[in-house]
C-alpha cells in the first residue's frame, strides 16, 4: 500500500492552524481512480496554499495502491486499511487543529471513510452518492459536496427533461459506464427514474464496461437502434469515444439519431471527452462527434477573477494536470457552447461540437448559435430567436427560444 503524504510548511511564520486531510482512492486514473491526476495537482495546490496563507499548514494524505484497479479490489478491505492507517498515525491527528476525511467517486461508495469519521466524530466531505450514508442522524459529520451528488442528478434531470419535452422526444435510451463503480449505477438509476417520471415513459438503460476489451459496443448500439432514436450517455471520455465509433459503424450518425452526452468540466476523474486521440480512428471519431450535443457541467460555478488568490488556488492544479497528463478541464477550441432550451442557470449548457471548423467569441456567438441550432434541428415554419447572456468571466452563451413564425 502506498501512503502519499503531501505537506508544505510556511517558512515565513509559524502556522497557527494545522489541517490534516485523509483521502482513500483507487490508483489507476483510467479505471475510475485518480491517483495519477490527483497527486501532482494536490502538490501544486499545497504549494500555492503555503504561499498565499503562510499561517495555515495543510497536509494531504492520499492512501492508495497499484493493486486497487476497480471498486471490487478496494471495498472489501477499505474499512480495515483506512482504520490501520489512521490509528498508526494518531500522533499526527493529535497535533492537528482539524482532521478532515474527503472522498470522491474514486473512493467508490465512501463507506470506509464515513464509518471511521462518524465513529471518531470527524468531519467528512463527500461527493459520492450513497443513499445509505446520507442519513444525517446516523452520519451526523458527513457533508455532501462537489459534482457527484444529488444536486448534479437534479440538474441533469431538470435540463434534459426540458430539452426532451421541447422537441417531444419521449422514447429515450440511457447508456451508463457502471461496471467499475457501484456509485455510477446508483446515479444512473436515479437519472432513469427521474427522467421516466418527468416524461411519463420508460427509459431503456444499457450498462457498459468501457475499460474491458470484451465489451461489444456494436451490440450495444444496435440494440439501442432497435428501441430508440434518442440516446443519453453517462460515461467516461474513452467509453464515449468507443460508443460513437460503434454508432458510426452502425450508421447511427447520419442525422436520424440524437446523441446527448453529459460531462463535468474541471473534474479530475471523468477524463477528456475530445474526439482526437492521435490514432487511426481520429477521422471517424471527428465525423461521429459532429452529431453530438453535449450538456456541459462546469464545477467552477463561481469562476474567480484572474490574478486573485482563489483563481491561483483553483486553476493552478488544473494547469498541472493538463501539462503533465494532457487532461482537459475545459472545452477544446473546436467545442462550441449553446445553452439548451429550458436549461437551468447553474453554468449548465447544451453544447454542439462541430467537427468541421473551430469557432470562438471572435467569430460571433450569435451567428454561430443560429447556424448550430438550424443545422442540427431543421425547423419547419419556425424561427430561432437568440438571447445573448454574458457572464462575469467574459464567456458569452446563447439561449435559443424557438417560436412559431
TrEMBL record:
Key words, A-Z: Membrane, Transmembrane, Transmembrane helix
Residues in Receptor ligand binding region domain copies: 111-336
Primary subcellular site in the record, as a coarse category: membrane
Top-rank taxon: Eukaryota
Keyword Transmembrane: yes
GO cellular component, one term: membrane
Pfam families recorded: ANF_receptor
Location of the protein in the cell: Membrane
Protein name: Receptor ligand binding region domain-containing protein
Amino acid at each position: 500500500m502506498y501512503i502519499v503524504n503531501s505537506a508544505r510548511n510556511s517558512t515565513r511564520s509559524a502556522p497557527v492552524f494545522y489541517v490534516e486531510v485523509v483521502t482513500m482512492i483507487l490508483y489507476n486514473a483510467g479505471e475510475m481512480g485518480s491517483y495519477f491526476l490527483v497527486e501532482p495537482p494536490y502538490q501544486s495546490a499545497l504549494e500555492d496554499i503555503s504561499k498565499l496563507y503562510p499561517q495555515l499548514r495543510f497536509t494531504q494524505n492520499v492512501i492508495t495502491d497499484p493493486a486497487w484497479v476497480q471498486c471490487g479490489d478496494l471495498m472489501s478491505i477499505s474499512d480495515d486499511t483506512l482504520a490501520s492507517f489512521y490509528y498508526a498515525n494518531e500522533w499526527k491527528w493529535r497535533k492537528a487543529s482539524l482532521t478532515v476525511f474527503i472522498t470522491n467517486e474514486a473512493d467508490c461508495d465512501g463507506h470506509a471513510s464515513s464509518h471511521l469519521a462518524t465513529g471518531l466524530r470527524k468531519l467528512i466531505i463527500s461527493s459520492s452518492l450513497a443513499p445509505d450514508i446520507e442519513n444525517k442522524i446516523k452520519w451526523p459529520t458527513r457533508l455532501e459536496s462537489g459534482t457527484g451528488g444529488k444536486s448534479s442528478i437534479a440538474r441533469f434531470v431538470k435540463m434534459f427533461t426540458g430539452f426532451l419535452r421541447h422537441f417531444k422526444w419521449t422514447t429515450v435510451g440511457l447508456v451508463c459506464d457502471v461496471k467499475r463503480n457501484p456509485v455510477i449505477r446508483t446515479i444512473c438509476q436515479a437519472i432513469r427514474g427521474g427522467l421516466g417520471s418527468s416524461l411519463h415513459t420508460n427509459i431503456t438503460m444499457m450498462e457498459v464496461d468501457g475499460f474491458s476489451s470484451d465489451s461489444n459496443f456494436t451490440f450495444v448500439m444496435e440494440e439501442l437502434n432497435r428501441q430508440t432514436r434518442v440516446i443519453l450517455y453517462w460515461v467516461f471520455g474513452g467509453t464515449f469515444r468507443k460508443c460513437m465509433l460503434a454508432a458510426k459503424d452502425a450508421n447511427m450518425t447520419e442525422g436520424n439519431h440524437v446523441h446527448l452526452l453529459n460531462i463535468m468540466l474541471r473534474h479530475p476523474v471523468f477524463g477528456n471527452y475530445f474526439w482526437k486521440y492521435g490514432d487511426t480512428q481520429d477521422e471517424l471519431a471527428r465525423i461521429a462527434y459532429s452529431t453530438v450535443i453535449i450538456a456541459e457541467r462546469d464545477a467552477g460555478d463561481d469562476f474567480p477573477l484572474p490574478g486573485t488568490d482563489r483563481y491561483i488556488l483553483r486553476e493552478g492544479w488544473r494547469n498541472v494536470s493538463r501539462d503533465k497528463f494532457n487532461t482537459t478541464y475545459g472545452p477544446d477550441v473546436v467545442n462550441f457552447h449553446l445553452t439548451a432550451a429550458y436549461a437551468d442557470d447553474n453554468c449548465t449548457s447544451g453544447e454542439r461540437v462541430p467537427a468541421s471548423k473551430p469557432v470562438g467569441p471572435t467569430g460571433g456567438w450569435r451567428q454561430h448559435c443560429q447556424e448550430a441550432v438550424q443545422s442540427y434541428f431543421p425547423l419547419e415554419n419556425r424561427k430561432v430567436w437568440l438571447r445573448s447572456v454574458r457572464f462575469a468571466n467574459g464567456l458569452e452563451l446563447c439561449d435559443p427560444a424557438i417560436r412559431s413564425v
